[in-house]
């Protein structure tokens, strides 16, 4: 009788073990934090660097930075094992000089694992709808774009001074928006937001991803920027907006302005 009882107990234990194997524990969900850092060809841009005429662009012009504010949206995680995509559909307006929103956690939880991570610089046309984001309508003095230029929202405001070809300190306003040509009827619009790929990222329980912007790249390639020719009133300049798009994104062999930095777990 004692042997029979032991055999029954052993059978229950075996069945229990088999049940655990058939019902693996679900992968825990996690959020991912992004930190945004900024540099000029590798030299970190700190708050004390603003307004100093200490940078030289690819065209040889001496220049400063007084403002750097930009928008990113649609951070997307695509699973490398299932190809499933996760997108919170939110956005983040980064003000470098004021040090606001330099860290951002998209409002979505995803299973831990391996992912391809991307985001959009600016808003794509689906999201770039005029006046629908109350917080942006008042941000940085109004982040909107006038309807005569197609409406929607700015992607970036990069401003400062440069020493022009008469040795005069002159303002520049490198503002990126959706390219527009209001000399046509109806207005011609072209989406000049772009997708940034950060490559493969392992997402664990406390993952943080650094996103680096090399500001010098906005002026380098494939279009070497001449601030004496293109300094202000760039928003209604269709061709200038296309050139900014090409310099910011990975285009025709250029590296683009964004790259993945340190990933910590």
TrEMBL record:
- Fetch the Pfam families from UniProt: MbnP
PROSITE patterns given for it?
A: PROKAR_LIPOPROTEIN (PS51257)
Q: Which domain of life is it from?
A: Bacteria
Database matches in InterPro entries: MbnP-like_dom (IPR046863)
Q: Where is the Copper-binding protein MbnP-like domain?
A: 30-232
Q: What is this protein called?
A: Copper-binding protein MbnP-like domain-containing protein
What organism, scientifically named, is this protein from?
Pukyongia salina
């Amino acid at each position: 009788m004692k042997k029979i009882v032991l055999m029954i107990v052993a059978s229950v234990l075996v069945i229990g073990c088999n049940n655990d194997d058939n019902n693996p524990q679900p992968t825990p969900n996690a959020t991912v934090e992004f930190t945004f850092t900024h540099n000029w060809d590798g030299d970190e841009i700190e708050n004390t660097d603003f307004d100093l005429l200490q940078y030289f662009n690819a065209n040889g012009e001496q220049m400063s930075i007084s403002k750097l504010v930009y928008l990113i949206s649609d951070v997307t995680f695509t699973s490398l094992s299932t190809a499933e995509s996760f997108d919170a559909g939110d956005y983040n307006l980064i003000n470098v000089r004021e040090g606001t929103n330099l860290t951002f956690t998209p409002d979505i939880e995803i299973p831990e694992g391996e992912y391809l991570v991307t985001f959009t610089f600016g808003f794509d046309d689906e999201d770039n709808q005029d006046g629908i984001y109350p917080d942006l309508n008042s941000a940085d003095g109004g982040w909107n774009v006038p309807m005569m230029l197609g409406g929607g929202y700015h992607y970036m405001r990069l401003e400062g001074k440069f020493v022009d070809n008469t040795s005069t300190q002159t303002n520049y306003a490198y503002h990126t928006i959706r390219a527009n040509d209001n000399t046509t009827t109806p207005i011609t619009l072209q989406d000049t937001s772009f997708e940034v790929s950060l490559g493969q990222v392992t997402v664990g329980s406390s993952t943080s991803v650094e996103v680096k912007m090399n500001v010098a790249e906005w002026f380098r390639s494939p279009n070497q920027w001449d601030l004496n020719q293109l300094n202000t009133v760039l928003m209604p300049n269709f061709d200038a907006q296309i050139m900014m798009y090409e310099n910011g994104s990975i285009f025709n062999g250029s590296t683009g302005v964004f790259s993945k930095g340190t990933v910590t777990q």
